[in-house]
Amino acid sequence: MSRKSLWLLTLLILTGTFLRLFKFDHTLLLESDQAMAFLLANRIINFGHILLVGPNTSFYGVNILPPTYYYIVTLIYFFWRSELGVSLAFTFIGIMSIPLIFLLAKEMALSAKTALIAAFFYTFSFTLIKYSRNIWEPHFVPFFVIIALYFAHKALNRKNFPLLLLSIFLFFISLMYVSSFLILPAFFFLTYSVLIKIDSDSTPPFLINFYIYILFFALFYFPNISFELTNNFPSLNPMRDFPVSESGNYLRNINTQFSVFLHSFLPINTGPVFATIIIFLLFITIPYLRKNLHLKWISYTLISAILLIGIYQRDAYPHRWSAIYPLFILLVSYFFSQFPKFVIFPFMFIFIYSNFNYYRFYISTNKSDEIKSSVEIAEFILKDSGGKSFSIFTDTPYNHTNYNTVYYVFLMEKLAGKPLYLLHPSGNWIDAGLNTNNRNIYLICEDYSINYFETLCQNKFIMEYNFGQPQETAFYIKKKTIYKFRGLGN
Hints:
Layout: H1 3-21, H2 32-47, H3 68-79, H4 83-107, H5 112-124, H6 126-131, H7 137-158, H8 161-174, H9 184-198, H10 205-230, H11 236-239, H12 250-265, H13 272-285, H14 293-309, H15 325-337, H16 341-364, H17 368-385, E1 390-395, H18 406-416, E2 440-446, H19 453-465, E3 472-477, E4 480-486
């Protein structure tokens, strides 16, 4: 690496560090997904909870994810008993991804210019900055995809079998979230190609590769398999309801999903036409990538991922593409490295400007006040109920499933130092059903305008569960009102 490249990379790492740590406490989240990870970590460490399945997905009821993510959070939480500390570990992973994607590009025989552009995109991407500031399983995925690809190409260049095993192991860690399944077939054929280069004379490389994947699958999915075997295969029935796109909606769904991904990379209003153009360019540029087979593999991987995600007929979210970001960045970086500086620099300016607008708004909202209000509510319910015979229902204008009760339960268990709430039979979420047989029932109305509390939140709850009027309105704090009802218990 030249001295100039080293200085530029160092500058990008320092900039990326600043962007990921500036006003860190303002953006720290303790929402349901974060709180559930901490609650399970606390139960595993202090109360011996045995977790056999991974996080829930929108394909609800199917235990498709191994518990890898929760055990990684538990390991960090064990050594650093702080939610802030665990979040900072994610930040460190995000910062380390900047030099790692540079090293991956070099290992793929790409130019220093391409590698620096890739590090630039990783540094200033608002989506990847946000991934580095809070814990959630999709946020871990890009790092493990990058490092798995790095060791796969290192194994290829050195013809080293242990490095290949390490690469596959790291990729299986990335299966903590469904987005990595989009590139699983392509990664399988990449490692198969590496095996051919390492040793093509002994046992057929395809069989060796296949057996390695079966071994790692058994290793990572042993808890899931155990759970399914001992609980009468609860994932089978929900599988029948897999949300498959209808034939007429398949192409439209691809365009919608990919448009959301592109907007998360370059947050300007490009529209669905732009997504169609990018997909078309992916197809027509493959023949011109013969000089670098690594780039050709990336192109095929992106195309296969796009085709696969089109099957899934649900709302489009950027995090469903978390495994794709590093690959897309590498391909776009190579594309721009072919142009002179007077073309590259204006695009870099547009990229920084568009992402910075989102970043500026993101850090201007102080989430720490929301955490404080949640702590106050948890303290009130714990004191008022004595930690006994209570049930909570949290309702918001956008979610009426009691999903948001998790962080109150986590905070109460942390304050009480003991489990207070039943878990779902799968053990990976609290039992979200309202137990009306408890003595104290608390309704928490979040994010409703005060004028609409009575009609939209409280009355709906009373009608659904056949309660009378609440005993009292406990208090109102930060767009959250707590009502107390008398349950059936004594």
